[in-house]
């Protein structure tokens, strides 16, 4: 037991709060890694389930810690970790860092555009690399629809398929790189 003023904090409460905070930190770390590397959507599911469990635990422990033991600092750590972590994910920082680390390797691979499957370029995992539409497409697994990143040589704009069904739609990403997503239906 630790003592706060004249109130003793039971060891089990301190351990439970540390485990809750630690699990929240792991969940946020998983989110940051998944966002940076495009590993798998299952990582997001795992992280969200962990955060929900941590939130439930925190909602039980926090009022007890504040009311009985006056442990305000220990109670505040988990929400701060979650807010900062989710703010980083929401602002796109992990994806930008992942791209910064991987851009050189992906550009080198795009210039030769050798077809491959399930390959890592820097920290980004791709399902497939293939030549298409005059450029090189890197299909990324975590996209909810078929899509990823495409490289077009300098001076070569991506084609505009006019929104035709089952054709990629390109949007600028960085330099000669574009995001692409395949429209999975015909437009009337």
Please describe what this structure looks like.
The chain is α+β, with helices and mostly antiparallel strands and 188 residues long. Helices cover 51% and strands 23% of the residues. Strand 5 (135-139) and strand 6 form a beta hairpin. The longest helix is centred in the first third of the chain and has 29 residues, at 41-69. The radius of gyration is 23 Å and the shape is elongated. The termini are far apart.
Distance between the termini: 70 Å
**Strand line-up in the sheet with most strands:** 3-4-5-6-8-7
Helix-and-strand structural type: alpha+beta
**Helix content class:** 40-55%
Cα shape = elongated
Assembly of the depicted chains: single chain
Helix segment tally:
4
Q: What are its keywords?
A:
4 helices; two-stranded antiparallel sheet; six-stranded antiparallel beta sheet; single chain; 188 residues; elongated; alpha+beta
Layout of helices and strands, plus pairs?
Blueprint: E1 2-4, E2 7-9, H1 11-37, H2 41-69, H3 72-91, H4 93-112, E3 116-121, E4 124-132, E5 135-139, E6 147-151, E7 168-174, E8 177-182
Antiparallel strand pairs: 1-2, 3-4, 4-5, 5-6, 6-8, 7-8
